Amino acid sequence: MTILRRLAVNTLRTVVWLSSPATQSWAKAMLAELDSISSEWKAFFWAIGSVRVLFVRQTIRPASLSDIPAAAKVLADRMNQRTRLGCVMVVGMALFFGRFFLHAPNALQQTGCALLVVAMLYMLFQLVTGRPKHIAPNADLAAQTNLYRSELKRERDFHRGRSFWSRLAVVMPGFILLCIGGMVADPSAIRSQTIQLALFFFFALLAIPNNLRFAKRYAHQLQELEHLELKG
Asked: Contact at 8 Å (CB) between 177 and 111?
């Protein structure tokens, strides 16, 4: 098996592992289809294209209280998928910055790397503790409704308030020091380091409205749940 083919297979296997139950069958079908693609490059791009399944947002808007169990399951599946995908990303970044720490040319960059590793571990902590709670399949509707409400609140709070702002704030010092250290180590790279810093702040600012929009969506679903309970 060539390197490209092996990379394509491993990519699709990773997508199958990270995808939610609602999209996992589609990812498995793409993995099975890989055998029929003879071109190595076509197989590679086929695998890369499968990554988009990880960003498909499955949701159910319950029209009555009887829809709550299905909605709660879809929400839990999405939270578990985010946990798996997020953990892979932050652990990978922690390892990257940890490795760079060993070869950093000055104390500023070493400090920046150390702070970024701490930031990634903090994000890992938030992801792991934010996993959905398990509930018995034979639980009654009241218990499943309470679980659904609590998970919606946790998702709302994950994207706003102290949880979100702390994630944003904990990354900034390390990245700023890393860029400043790069400028000190190589004055000719000041322009490129400045561009990296500007892009970092741009995406950090972009994350604010995106997360607040998610928080607002979950708050709206909580209001819908309250209306259903009043009607029921």
From this structure: yes
